[in-house]
Amino acid sequence: MDKTKERFIGNPEEFKVVFRSQCVECIKNIDREKCEAYEIKPIEYRKNEKNYPVFEEYN
Fold it and tell me: In Å, what is the CA distance from 16 to each residue of 1, 13, 30, 47, 51?
């Protein structure tokens, strides 16, 4: 296979899965565990198991 086609074919070893919390784009987010709405964010929101009820996106 020539090099131009090889770059479009991936192997499982080449992929990296990155977890991204829904809080990342919220303007109330302070850090991974804190926000303006909660002193300590519930783990369900940090792990995206529940939708964050006070989410406000950047405009």
Answer: 24, 8, 26, 18, 25
